[in-house]
Every structure is written in C-alpha cells, then in structure tokens.
Write a structure and sequence with these properties.
Blueprint lengths: L11 H19 L8 E7 L1 E23 L5 E6 L6 E2 L4 E5 L2 H37 L4 H34 L1 E3 L4 E3 L9 E2 L8 E16 L3 H7 L5 E6 L7 E8 L9 E8 L11 E18 L4 E3 L2 E7 L5 E5 L1 E5 L3 E6 L6 E5 L10 E3 L9
Parallel strand pairs: 1-20
Antiparallel strand pairs: 1-19, 2-9, 2-13, 3-5, 3-8, 4-7, 5-6, 7-9, 9-12, 10-11, 10-13, 11-12, 13-18, 14-15, 15-16, 17-18
Length: about 375
C-alpha cells in the first residue's frame, strides 16, 4: 500500500512547484500531438520499353592502314608529284629520284648478259664435241673434263648476269617512289634537290588510309562476359567527337583483342566506320558508346531511384495515400541515367528519385513534380 503524501508538512514553495508540474503533465497528456512534417520529394513512373545494353568508353581514332614511305635506293630528288595532304591512290607516283645512274647500270648489266650468253653458247658447243671425241678415244679425259667445266662455269656466269640485270631494273623502278596504299598524305620530309639515302630511318612521307577508319577503345575486364555473350549479334559502335553528343557516327565492332591487358585490367576493342565525309581524323579523342544488344520490354527507372542498404538494393515506392514503402529490387544493369530492374517493380508504379534518403518506410511525403504536373 502506497503511503499518502501529507502536503501539510511540506513547505508552501515546494507544494506550489509540485502542483505546477502536475498541471503541465496533465496538459501535455490531454492535448493533440503535432504531426511530423512531410518531406518534399521528386518522383518518376516505372516504364516498360526497349533499352539498349550499352558500354561507354573513351577512344582514339586511328587509320585502318598506314604506310611510311621511304627510299629503297639513294639519289637526288628530281620531282615531287604530289602536294602535302593530297589524296593519292595505290601505285601513284609520289617522288622521283634521278633515274639516270640506274638506267645506265641496267644497260651495262644487259650488255654483260649478252656477252656471257654468247660465250656460254660457244663453250656448250665445245663441250658437246668433246663428249663425242672422248667416246671415240680421240681426246684425253683431262681435256674432256676441262671443256665441260668451262661450259658449266659460263652457264653459271649467265645466270649471275641475269640476276644482276633484274636487280638493276628493280633499282631503276625503285627510283620512282610510288604510294603503296590509297589514302591521304601527311607532312613531306624531302624537297627537290635533296639527296636521299636508301633505308633511312625517317620516312619521306606517311600515307594514311582514312576510309574506312577505326576507333580503338578499352573496357574493364568485368565487361568481358557480356561482350562474349553478344559478340555474334553484330554489336554497333557509336562515337561522338569532342563534347558534341548530339551528332553520333555509327559503325560496327570490328575487333576484340584475344587477351586482357594484365597491367591495366582492360580489354582492347576497335570499331570500324565508313568515314565517307572524313569526320573522323587519326589521333582524335572521341566518346564511344558500344551497343551490345537491345532489351525488349525492359522495366526501367531513373538511376537515382536505386538505393543500397544492408539487405541489398531497394527503391521507395509512393503509395496512393502519399506514404512510402521500401521495395527490394534486382538491378540487371545501370548507368548514370537509367537502371534496368529485373524484379521488384511493375510498370506504372511511382518511385522516389530525390529525397528518399530523408525518409523511412511509411513516411508521408509531398511531391514536388508528380506525374501529370499535380502535387500529391
């Protein structure tokens, strides 16, 4: 049994304070509680549409073929048959080296061949006669062998002369330096009157084939399974130059390296583009968008709607009564803009895209921009 407090034995000040506390407690218990303020949020609707499966990267443009043109014979440059930056075709004359020394060498080699052919013909006739005489015992074996050896030696001389003539004619042909490929010429490193040497380390001019052209780029090795999965579906590659994302150039995936670079953990890929208008230029940096495939009827939400918790990824779904519910979801893949959800959401539902980190399950919210332009 609780003893009753005898207020008559307390001091008047203490009694007054006790009564005040009791009145305040009674007032707090009987008055209405203030409702928690609503959090302002932004929402978006869950959509079902086609979504490209993409990988983004930065790439470098490179010619599909390049040729460093050098002199194969030495001499004085007598003519330049093109201007720097010209489009040239395969086999077109670029640089002419003085051909007179090579023409003279070819004529000399031809004369030597004619002389030795005549001598070899005479020696072969003598060898045939020596065979007949040796069979009848008319000449000694030593004379017979000497005649046969002379004929064979002259046959070898003829063959050597033929090779020398072919070399001289080839050098005469090399005096006219021609383009090995079709493409655009670069900076010219020689002028008329210059003495060039054969086999120099610096090219006289470089020719790049710009149509078609390629873009090389790397992706993280984690993307390798997806690339292998869709490689046979002819993935498309789209590039945009500089900061201009509004105008993309379409091409095809032409090359996937056969090994991951162990030092960087990346895989090298190349896209090929027709480049008929020469919009892509060797050495240029571009933004690359590799589209592996297009997913049909994918469930899509804005990427900011996805949150990570201890139990995994989830979103806040907005209910009809302006309350929220945390919904676990499975994200198939996502980028900076959109996320494709494989389970947990249905098309038409509304998810919170901004402000979800200030609320909890069951919280009441106010929508800044609801679908249809009306606040909830």
């Amino acid at each position: 049994m609780v003893p009753r407090l005898d207020l008559s034995r307390l001091r008047p000040g203490i009694v007054a304070a006790a009564l005040l506390v009791a009145l305040l407690a009674a007032g707090c218990g009987s008055g209405p509680r203030r409702a928690a303020p609503r959090v302002s949020v932004t929402v978006a609707q869950v959509e079902r549409r086609e979504v490209p499966l993409e990988i983004h990267a930065t790439g470098t443009v490179e010619p599909i073929q390049t040729a460093a043109v050098a002199a194969q014979v030495g001499g004085i440059v007598t003519r330049l048959a093109f201007r720097e930056g010209d489009e040239v075709t395969q086999g077109q004359l670029l640089i002419q080296i003085d051909p007179r020394p090579f023409r003279a060498a070819a004529e000399q080699a031809s004369a030597n061949l004619m002389r030795d052919v005549a001598q070899a013909r005479t020696a072969r006739a003598d060898a045939d006669r020596a065979n007949s005489l040796f069979s009848s015992g008319a000449i000694a074996a030593a004379d017979h062998d000497r005649t046969i050896a002379t004929a064979d030696a002259l046959d070898g001389t003829v063959r050597a002369d033929s090779a020398a003539l072919a070399t001289a004619r080839l050098n005469l042909e090399f005096a006219s330096i021609r383009s090995p490929i079709t493409g655009r010429t670069g900076s010219l490193n020689v002028h008329v009157g210059d003495l060039v040497k054969s086999g120099g380390s610096d090219p006289l001019v470089t020719v790049n084939r710009l149509r078609p052209i390629r873009v090389r780029f790397t992706v993280p090795q984690a993307e390798l399974p997806r690339i292998q999965r869709y490689r046979d579906q002819s993935p498309r590659v789209f590039v945009s130059a500089g900061n201009d994302d509004s105008l993309e150039i379409a091409g095809a995936l032409a090359f996937v390296d056969n090994a991951v670079d162990a030092s960087t953990g990346t895989l090298l890929l190349k896209g090929e583009f027709p480049n008929a208008d020469h919009r892509l230029w060797p050495g240029e940096f571009v933004q690359v968008r590799l589209v592996l495939t297009t997913q049909k009827n994918a469930t899509v939400v804005p990427a900011p709607a996805i949150a990570n918790g201890q139990q995994g990824t989830f979103v806040y779904v907005l209910n009809a009564d302006s309350t929220t519910t945390a919904r676990p979801v499975t994200v198939d893949h996502a980028d900076d803009i959109t996320a494709v959800v494989s389970s947990g959401l249905e098309a038409g539902e509304t998810v919170i895209t901004d402000g979800q980190f200030r609320i909890g399950p069951g919280a009441r919210v106010i929508v800044r921009h609801a679908p249809g332009g009306k606040a909830k």
